[in-house]
């Protein structure tokens, strides 16, 4: 009887420690690092007859810029955070390259390829740059009218924001949307960062350890604040939609700017999307709320008057396991239709945007002295802007709470590991004791 009691106690201790360890390990995989692939990758390979590799695409764009130095320039921006490095190429279109005339022109910032699996978006970036350079042309568009429109613009194009994530896709993980260390770049911005919905999936939406923890978002943030655009468009695929703020709540902004944005989207939908595209706020239209997105930051913090998210393609009939087909056209006819229709849509934006934001409603920028507030020089680019003292205090408080949550997770993990070691030691010491046979009384 004594041996039974001892054996039962030892077994219970081992089972308790083992299941506690497994449970917390699963929690860490799902909540903390989000690096476990929970969605099977598509088996359909990338169609190389339609899609460039990331390296080839960037070389093609580089050659295009080299052939048209009177219109295009290109710069590569690198950033590093905790051993992880990213590089983003930015192509600037400016007729005659009148760099000293930047502030007098209408400024547009476009980002493509924020999610690695959405290859079609970077192909659209290449097509738009080819039209801007006049190596390709839009059908039914008067060249003189087009040149008159473009002469008033400066357009910055990021063809492939998430190069590291794109390389993972090309290596075979066709469902990967995050960057090279498992963070969703469209959840890593500071507006409503870190909030998780009930259906949160770390493989899809891991927000990182803090706002702007990722080099890619640090680069994009600095680019946006220095360029100070009138229009921002973040280009994705997965459906056909024209979204305006907000993503993190089921509402659109109030006032004149919201009216301008809605009018512009309705025009694009009518003339270039054949009324197929969903219009409204991302949070109210797509079926779920998204927190920490680029577009909400551009509108709320960077004060971009017109901030949009465009979804340019989606195959609703595709299996949820077939990521490549779900997010990218797989036949030549559809591929060309998407590029042609959406190129025309973007050039409509180039024409209508300045008309909507007339001289009667100029862009109001925060003073530079108020725009940047350094929280800590050791945060590798984690800088935040607020135009009021109260805003600065709230930003610091939010960041402090995020740090506390991170350290709490580490504390819990350490505690569980110590508990496991302690239980194992107890079990071992108990099992090594001499066992006395039960003596009947």
UniProtKB/TrEMBL annotation:
Matches recorded under PROSITE patterns: PEPTIDASE_M14
Keyword list, A-Z: Membrane, Transmembrane, Transmembrane helix
Cofactor(s) this protein cannot do without: Zn(2+)
A cellular-component GO term for this protein: extracellular space
Residue ranges of the TM segments: 406-423
Signal peptide start-end: none
A Gene Ontology BP annotation from the UniProt entry: proteolysis
Domain Peptidase M14: 50-352
UniProt cross-references to InterPro entries, sorted A to Z: At5g42320_M14_CPD, Peptidase_M14
Lineage: superkingdom: Eukaryota
Active site location: 311
Any one Gene Ontology molecular-function term assigned to this protein's record: zinc ion binding
Transmembrane helix among keywords: yes
Family to which this protein belongs: Belongs to the peptidase M14 family.
Alphabetical list of PANTHER family matching this protein: OS02G0119300 PROTEIN (PTHR11705:SF119), PROTEASE FAMILY M14 CARBOXYPEPTIDASE A,B (PTHR11705)
Protein name (Swiss-Prot/TrEMBL): Peptidase M14 domain-containing protein
Species, as recorded: Carpinus fangiana
High-level lineage: Eukaryota, Viridiplantae, Streptophyta, Embryophyta, Tracheophyta
